[in-house]
Design a protein that fits this description.
305 residues; alpha/beta; 12 helices; 7 strands; 48% helix; 6PGD_dom2; oxidoreductase; 6-PGluconate_DH-like_C_sf; gluconate utilization; Phosphogluconate dehydrogenase (NAD(+)-dependent, decarboxylating)
């Protein structure tokens, strides 16, 4: 059994705590929501952990993550380890790692994929950092990843920053896949020949070259709302698609599909369309992301991704 401090018990962090506990490990979680937290404060959480400590940060990317890691740097001791499992930009990782290293604290960045389904299915993990730090956290990674061969759900992608870079590209690909399914849905709906669009898409689930988990989620969404009329085609982006396109430009790598998918999301905020309703439904299905319902009211609740 290993012990872990987990900061951030939102949709993903809450389920990650449960999955790690199911594997027989001890988790002390901290969240500002008193209904889900195990500790009264960040300092209280750290105080409940035995040295050398491992703390996983699972909060929204940006200033919140940076401040949380800075606060942990003041609370932890030499020999402890911090893992950033949020959707941070990879360029933040070197800064965080160097600040913690000056205090003798290790740092790993971990891209996490699995959304609200990770509790039962496991999470795909992409890690960046020093090998000795990765090895130390392997029991936690093994608890979180899907059952089966480790290499099919976990990768030590490279040095600090590699995990979040890999997750950034993963999310860029995700943008493209969702957009392709969405455009296919809109074309089927526009046709006078195809009279049962949900049944047609459901028929793609077995034996076809386009079958995937995202397709399964689209089928699930269509079963509850066959024309997706309950949603507006308004789709936000978490930032990782933008970063992927920026890096494609920086490395002179052509990425027309990912770029077009990102721009389609921008367009969705100006004009409603069946395709963007499908993308909104997919994001809600796999990650519990917020949606805007048709009419004057809008959906609520969101996570990373």
């Amino acid at each position: 059994m290993v012990q872990l401090g987990l900061v951030g018990l939102g949709k993903m962090g809450f389920n990650m705590r449960e999955r790690i506990r199911r594997a027989g490990h001890e988790v002390v979680g901290y969240d500002r929501n008193p209904e889900v937290t195990d500790a009264d404060s960040l300092a209280d959480m750290v105080g409940r952990l035995s040295a050398p400590r491992v703390v996983w940060v699972m909060v929204p990317s940006g200033d919140i993550t940076r401040q949380t890691i800075a606060d942990l740097g003041d609370l932890l001791e030499a020999g402890d380890l911090v893992i950033d499992g949020g959707n941070s930009r990879f360029t933040d990782d070197k800064i965080n790692a160097e600040a913690l290293d000056a205090k003798g604290i290790g740092y790993l960045d971990c891209g996490v994929s699995g959304g609200v389904w990770g509790l039962e299915n496991g999470y795909g993990l992409m890690v960046g950092g020093e090998p000795e730090h990765v090895e130390r956290a392997v029991p936690i990674f093994d608890a979180l990843r899907p059952e089966g061969p480790r290499e099919q759900g976990f990768a030590h992608a490279g040095p600090v920053g590699a995990g979040h870079f890999a997750k950034m590209v993963h999310n860029g690909i995700e943008y493209g896949l969702m957009q392709a399914y969405a455009e296919g849905f809109e074309l089927l709906e526009a046709s006078e020949l195809v009279q049962d669009v949900p049944a047609t898409i459901k028929a793609w689930q077995r034996g076809t070259v386009v079958r995937s988990w995202l397709l399964d989620l689209l089928v699930r969404a269509l079963e509850s709302d066959p024309e997706l009329d309950d949603l507006r085609g308004h789709v936000e982006d978490s930032g990782e698609g933008r970063w992927t396109v920026e890096e494609a430009i920086n490395h002179a790598v052509p990425a027309p599909v990912i770029s077009a998918a990102l721009f389609a999301r921008f367009a969705s905020r100006q004009d409603d369309s069946p395709a963007m309703r499908a993308v909104a439904a997919l994001r809600n299905q796999f990650g519990g992301h917020s949606v805007q319902v048709a009419g004057p009211s809008s959906g609520s609740g969101s996570t990373q991704g």
